[in-house]
Fold each of these.
Amino acid sequence: MSEGCFFKLVDVLRPHLPVGGISPELRVSMGLLYYGGGSYLDVAAVHRVSHSTLYNSVWDFTDAVSSAKNMDITMPIDDPQWRARTAALFQKCGDSPLNNILGAFDGIAIDQEPPTARDVSCVADHMSRKGFFAINTQAMFDANYEFTWVSCRNPGSVHDSTAFAGSDFGAWATAASDSLARELMDGGYCFVGDEVYAASELVAVPWPGRGGLSQWRDAYNFYQSSARIHIELAFGQVVQRMGVLWRPLRMSYDKRPVVIQTAFKLHNFCRRHDSTGMVHVTGPNDGPFDARSLVRDNGAVADASGSRRAWQQSHLRERMTREVEAAGRLRPPVHGML
């Protein structure tokens, strides 16, 4: 975070920080170093405070980020101008014939220390299929790698599709029955996910099957994936930035979802205000390899035949496939391969 971005953050959080004691600048500095992965011993020594003062400042900082309305993770889908800008930027950054995508979503398993039997009814439910205790976090981003929706209410054993469907946004997008959903469908807009999610008239997923697809269904899968793959880069950016996510979360169990939300909010703030931070969506170096290696994707792998999803009917997916065909955009050839 640049110096200018730091002082912008201090100004945003100042009204929500305690008055008296250490200064807002010191509280924000200690909070950022904690979320950046700094050792509590080093952070306390650098700021010349006791360990208890450090932790109190970190939670004051976390509460301030949660209280500041302009730090909220929002998705203004009721704004026609936002919808048009977002869809156009998705189309531009993916060089895609699809001009109706408002967001891409996926799940990530956030590592955590095992909760105790006093915290949860069944500790085993928090063991993910990859063999570590986790919190299933579902998230969506826009074409500028800013997160527009985050849900971290499910334990690690919950499948991504179940976690998404059980969230408020997921239930709304799957049902697609209210006036706003109908407005989005009339405008042709959608959100994209991978093959583990259920198709609906607002959720576009790939056609099932690894082979035997028509050339236009295969082309649709390519361009749908080109939009969706950026969520992995966004996960890589936030994990690289937030060192607190590099090791299992160890704070009290009820604070862990708040810490995850705060990490995502700070990432968004840096994307919006820090010109010296991560490169913008048009830059050539988004999603550094080292960061992506830290991401533990929580998506289950679909079976090769795709039979679990073959029964799903989606007029949205069929229409988007016809749009790819009308544009004459096949999957680009891979150079060097016959």
Amino acid sequence: MRIVLASTERDWRGGEVQAGLLAEGLRRRGHEVAVLARKDGQLALRMDQAGLPVEAFPGRGRSPASWWSIRRFLRSFRPQVLHANDSPALACTSWASWGLPIPARIASRRVVFPIRSPEKYRVGCDRVLCVSHAVAEACIASGVPLDKLCVVHDGVDPQRISQGNRERGRRSLAIEEGRPLLVTVAALTDDKGHKTLIEAAHQVIQTHPDAVFAWAGEGNRRDELQTLAAEAGLSQHIRFLGFRHDIADLIYAADVFVMPSHMEGLCSSIIDAMFAARAIVATTAGGIPELVGAAPDEPPVAWLAPPKDATSLANALLECLAAPEERRQRGQRAHRRAMARFTAEKMVDGVLEVYRAVLERPQGRLAA
């Protein structure tokens, strides 16, 4: 197939990681893949370094000049599949490709927020790829037809995570073995729940006064969160690490991986922790239960708490820290579950199934 993946995001976060894994996975399977991305974005840079053809456009693709550039590229490349990786990418590629004969138009949806403009999903694409059933339910609630929705969970490259090293990660933080280390990898945004974790951390420190909470990620709430941590007397316990290139080391260094989100499409950072066989404490927000199998008939792979409930989160953290053997067992179960369900290869397989299903419709077939 000839496939174009489009993204308008600047930063390198979960959605862009998934786009990169998808692009490289499709290329390995022999498909012709090109990337449409903003000039100042990390996806354009990284895919160019990976040797994939990249067509870059200015800003988020909202200007007529951007639309013309995108349209000119699409007319030249003649994709069979045009896949928008984010909502603004769906909008700009819809405008830019109006009237072009593209058999399959796909849009990814990664968040559980209500859709402000559901019409673009109803009209602008053939299928909406939801990263979880929770996201699909949010799409239905926003008015997207059920027959447009497909669920394909995100995936992670196990080889990338397996390169992590616990000793190296602890050394980078100057934390000796035996000192409790709780790691969170998430953008510093409101929906990730760091405020709740500050409240929970205050309770955890009463029992574990030498515990360290290490937060990897950047975001628009950093200053506010640093102020709140200082006001709670936790400046010596909560470390704001910013953007890191050694995420695998940090995850392996952790005694507990913590995800306090109160809104979450799926959370590929939890998959990273599962591949590293880490003990996981998370909330039940969005698609997280789909990752950790929070069903009564399945043995637990994580400790879970309701979103925005600091006391319950603190209790889960304390229970986890008090049970080293249970941490080990749940971590091993998490690793097996991730290998069975959440590899990048399985994600690519799932996406290809959707592409083929659309192309094989009578109205989606190319002329011979």
